[in-house]
Amino acid sequence: MATTAPTKMDSPREHFSVSGLIAKLKARRKRKEEAPKDTRQPLRSSPLPLVLPQHQSTLVNLGWTTVTFPQPAPFPNGLSSPTSPHTSDHATPTPDTHPLQQAYEDLFKASAAFFDLPDSEKQRWKTKLGSEEGWSKIPGEKEFITLRTLEYTPDVLKEPAAKYWKLIGAHLTSSLGRIEGSLGMGTEALSRFVGPCGTLQDTDAGKTATMLRLFRYEGWEEKVVAEPHADLGLLSFVVGDVPGLEVWNGQQFIPIEKTYTQPAGTLLAGRQLQRFSNFRYPAGGHRVVSYGRPSEVDGQEKKYRFSIVFVLRAHEPVIVNSADLETEVTGKWEHPVTDMSAGVLYEQIRNAHFNINTGMKEREEQRRKLEGKKGNEKASG
Ligand SMILES: O=C(O)CCC(=O)C(=O)O
Ligand SMILES: [Fe+2]
């Protein structure tokens, strides 16, 4: 959906005529009358973790929502913590930063240190699988490194990446548990697809479909730095250190990160979840924009935007049977799937979408190929 939007918005106004308008209205009414009545039950209430009440419904309606990290309550004496250097050896409980927030903050620091290395050093991690693993540089736009195993992770990132992966993996697993509930599915109907994807695996032999991608966007020219697309996995979670991510609300892109007044990240539904939920959850359309140079942070000029993107994909060997995922809320799948591995189904989904994170030339080739296939003009991340 996301890629078709700009074309629509940019299209010139159609020639206006009264008879044309009447014909259009009649056609619309006919389409409405002919459309089969949706007899599916409404979604069940099943709140997502760390999502404020006012943000609960956007994931199912639009494919994205905000995850808000609770902030430690200030102490009445005005101190940020009840402990002083003299009492710090006492076991006084301190109101801590949320562990997931702490983990992404640590990962941001390590990510900045990695990207600061000379290119000659980063070359060692040069991409192995297109944008699917290793370091890539798109000059003038961004650099990013995709992590899939500890073995192929630079030392400076190893510990913070593994820690973040574990925490976000657990968080998204519990979010999938709530999504299952909202769809009237049994326990683990969706979360069973996580398996070993919930931890950063040690070696290539244990590599899973899931990935952690660290970005450093360069330059502050006002422009789109990642084209509109939807991610391919079950759920993605994005945190940025300055606003840049925008989400599609069906009509326009919303600069969602500009609305964050406290530490928060964006949860996105991917195309696998869209499919596994029989399209009850849409895949969240999004893009990344540079708004121009942000104001100084701590008296220092900001040179880059950093972001951390975790893409949770279904573990490839897990078998999909659509009958196990059908409920009165999802309805019947139009194209049922029997004993197909999540990996094979993923390939079908992936082949229908071009990848925005490959280089310009490859991207154009992918797009051209897809344009040959009817109705497949959708991008993926
Ligand atoms: O960098 C970001 O904020 C998001 C990037 C993204 O959408 C992607 O890699 O799929
Ligand atoms: Fe994305």
TrEMBL record:
Residues 208-316 form the Fe2OG dioxygenase domain. InterPro entries: IPNS-like_sf, Iron_ascorbate_oxido_reductase, Oxoglu/Fe-dep_dioxygenase_dom. Residues 1-49, 73-99, 362-381 are annotated as: Disordered. Residues 32-41 have a biased composition (Basic and acidic residues). Gene3D superfamilies: B-lactam Antibiotic, Isopenicillin N Synthase, Chain (2.60.120.330). PROSITE patterns: FE2OG_OXY (PS51471). Coiled coil: none annotated. Residues 78-95 have a biased composition (Polar residues). GO terms for molecular function: metal ion binding; oxidoreductase activity. Keywords: Iron, Metal-binding, Oxidoreductase. It comes from the Eukaryota. Belongs to the iron/ascorbate-dependent oxidoreductase family. PANTHER family: 2-OXOGLUTARATE (2OG) AND FE(II)-DEPENDENT OXYGENASE SUPERFAMILY PROTEIN-RELATED (PTHR47990). This is Fe2OG dioxygenase domain-containing protein. It comes from Lophiotrema nucula. The lineage of its organism: Eukaryota, Fungi, Dikarya, Ascomycota, Pezizomycotina.
